[in-house]
Write a structure and sequence with these properties.
single chain, about 325 residues, alpha/beta, 7-stranded parallel β-sheet, about 45% helix, elongated
Amino acid sequence: MKKQVTAIMMAGAVAFSMSGPVLAEEDFLVGFANNSDTYDYCATFRKYLKEETEALGMSIVVTDAGGDTNVQNGQIDDFIVQGADVVSAISNDLDGSVPALEAAIAADLPYVTFLTSVTGGDDYEKYIYIGSENYDAGVVQGEYLLETLPENAQILYFTGTPNDQQYIDRKAGLEDTLAERDDIEILAEYNVENQKDLGMSTAEDCMQAFESFDAIVCQNDDAALGVIEALKSADRLDGVIVIGIDGSDAALESVQAGEMSMTVLQNARAQAQAGAEVFASIRDGEDPADIEDVKVPFEEVTIDNVADYLSDDAEAETE
């Protein structure tokens, strides 16, 4: 049975980071396979994870799978061959990433997955999840919509990969929350693969298919930014709520400009700090089976508080 999940607040993670690097053996090696550097959030997380891990005196090899699950599985195999002490990834696919987990099990290595889950992981004592509760991201979106949508509202929903557990959970959180109002209708749902260009082209198609709608809800910021571009080009942005998830730099700037209505911040820095702390605990002799999963809370960002997050980001970049 998998251990209990614990929550971590950003302040706690920052406090750990500020405690300074820990002296350790130089031969402790972490392997991290990013799912795709094309996503702004994933590229940012990769950068932070490398910084935080090295700051604690460990070596880390990072790779980019380019969204290809087979490539990522092969990269994790390579980490094992290279003698990694821990293998980790933003696992690309709930079921497709199982071979990578099985390789870690065969090598008796800890498998740390960030942001996404792998089928069967909870049955492996050395499997550790670090990320945010994706159901809660949908709840945050839903609560914002409950407060801002007009009566008899109609919305469009742009999703990520249907078989990815994080997007299944985000959808469930949104739908459960919106159920508090029976006058909100989801007109249609589209898989835009969380890509900006598909968000843009799908929004263009929707403007042809639907005479009006009150909001377009996206499961990440990249798609939402594409939606905004399409609405702006058609002079349809005014009166349409567009929301995303991640809190990327571009999304925060869009919120500040009054274009994107809201984004749900997924704190890449806090997640990376938590990951580095877990790696250090393993290096220092803690049994991975005793290390709890880490959940970093999502945060709502709107025009009312975006300046605080832009300021925090600017400070982080200059550290």
